[in-house]
Each structure stands twice: as C-alpha cells, then as structure tokens.
C-alpha cells in the first residue's frame, strides 16, 4: 500500500490539474465505488486507482 501512495504522490507532482474523485462501477454483482486520482501529463490524462 505504501509504494502505491508514493507513486500516486509522484504522479500528482508531475501533473497539471490534479483531481481526486470516486469512480463508480455497475455490473451484475452490484455497484462498486473506488477512489481514483487523475491529472494531465503532457496532454494525456493519467488516472491511478487501486
């Protein structure tokens, strides 16, 4: 878990317009909600989620 947090913070440091949001998934087993971090790196949107 700790390496994932470090990777997320390093990714945010390199991003412009970082955001923390909740992703929502709906499938046959129900609804899932998970945290995600996203930002723009050189024109591409990068998202990190567990």
Give a summary of the structure in a few sentences:
The protein contains 1 helix and 3 strands.
- The spatial strand order of the largest sheet comes to 1-2-3
What about the largest sheet?
3 strands, antiparallel
Question: What series of H and E elements makes up the topology?
Answer: HEEE
Distance between the termini: 9 Å
Q: What value does the Rg take, in angstroms?
A: 12 Å
Total number of beta strands: 3
Shape: globular
Uncertain runs: none
- Share of β-strand residues: over 45%
- What do the pLDDT scores average to? 79
Helicity range = 25-40%
What structural class is derived from the secondary structure elements?
alpha+beta
How many alpha or pi helices?
1
How does this model look, in words?
It contains one helix and three strands. It is 26% helix and 58% strand. The protein starts with a helix and ends with a strand. The protein has a three-stranded antiparallel sheet with strand order 1-2-3. It is α+β, with helices and mostly antiparallel strands and 50 residues long. A hairpin with a 2-residue loop joins strand 1 (16-27) and strand 2. The longest helix is centred in the first third of the chain and has 13 residues, at 2-14.
